[in-house]
Design brief:
5-stranded antiparallel beta sheet; 40% helix; 9 helices; alpha+beta; single chain; 3-stranded antiparallel beta sheet
Amino acid sequence: MNDLYAHHYPEQYNHLLSNVSNHEMTILQDNELYKHLRFRAPGTSMWGFDIITWPGYLTIVGDIGDGYIFHLEQNMLRFFDHSQPDGNINPGYWAEKLTRSITYEEYSPDVFTRTITDLATDLRDHIPWDDHQRFNESITDDVLSHAENGETYARDALHNFTFTDSTNTQHTFNTDTQDHNFTDYKYHFILALHAILWGAKTYHTHQKQTYKKHLETLRANHTTNALAVPAPPVSCGTSAADSDKTVEDALRWLESSDAHMILVVREDGRVHTRSRIARESEVAVLQSLVQQLEGAS
């Protein structure tokens, strides 16, 4: 169980967690903003799903959320996972980033019941005290009992409701039923949002662990003429100007930095840090140096 607020939809979150506890992540592609992450339990595709990203886009396919495509920021994994607590989805804002018209809301008996309960509370203030129990029973029998019968029957029940009190005064809700929205997000849409955030956090946790390993190797081998570490897993658009630091200063900075960095240690014991890799030749050099690090660890 967890301490999520209602607007984070803990029911769907717990449903997801109960079905992905044995899932493993397979990184099919990880080329900067081009990623293909697969989440499956060994030996089965049930509840399996893939998250695929390319610049400005993210889609989820598989048993959960098949067909949803989101578009906004270049790094869409970081758009969903911006280091908020586990399960803290933002359905309203995220739904606005869907790339095509797709139905993600539906009539909700729970929303209808909550709305009618609030309306009845206000109406009860105009009814004599001695009639309150009978009024409550009438609300339950004549309106709330239709909540599970579908939106059309529910709205008709609200529209047709009339209560006559002991003074022979008739009471209605005096409201156009179309003024009320009885919809909520579809269960499987919320499930998909939780799966995206869970998958993004799983990937970022893996990257942080890998990054720490490279940093530890670098710390142990920092006297080498040229060493590099892969880009940190977190990207918030931060960049650093070229600068000279001591090895230890640079390592501490990298451990807390959100920038995509190359770290090169020179013979004089100073280091040169530089933001994003710009050229293919630099990518090749970095990959070669990372292989050296991995071989030394």
